[in-house]
Automatic annotation (TrEMBL):
GO terms for biological process: nucleotide metabolic process. One of its GO terms (molecular function) is ATP:ADP adenylyltransferase activity. This is Ap4A phosphorylase 1/2 N-terminal domain-containing protein. Transmembrane segments: none annotated. It comes from the Eukaryota. Pfam families: Ap4A_phos_N. Residues 8-150 form the Ap4A phosphorylase 1/2 N-terminal domain. InterPro entries: Ap4A_phos1/2, Ap4A_phos1/2-like, Ap4A_phos1/2_N, HIT-like_sf.
Amino acid sequence: MPASKGAAGFCWQAVERALERARGANALRDIPTVPRRHGKFVLRLSENLRQKPKLEEASGVGPISRPKRLDPFERNNLDPDLVVCDLGSGHTVLLNKFPVVSPHLLVVTRDFEPQTDLSAADYRACLSVLGQWRGEDGGLAFYNSGPHSGMR
């Protein structure tokens, strides 16, 4: 039976294949969490993130000046082991390299866009993924926006 594709070309079998490929290549860096049930909700706590030093603490002399980093979502910089599929001509689905749950997917634009308001195309791309979600925790979508989100 052929893979069922949603609007814009998303298919769940591509997620399963990408997970297998990424695990085989050790491309995922899981963030361990402890699930806590609160009624019908599950909160995931990550104790390891408490131990992460702040930039000022790492050097002991204030903020660290770093060389400019490459945009990991630029088409030429994508880790092929994390690519799930393209969604139409404007978006790509990736596995999150640092998953909190599995699968932890990212829906990113193919071209750089400021992280301000979502476009109608962004909503359609996200809904095409959520409409076929098969993860055990159900689907959840969130959007990082504003001048301090994403790559800086």
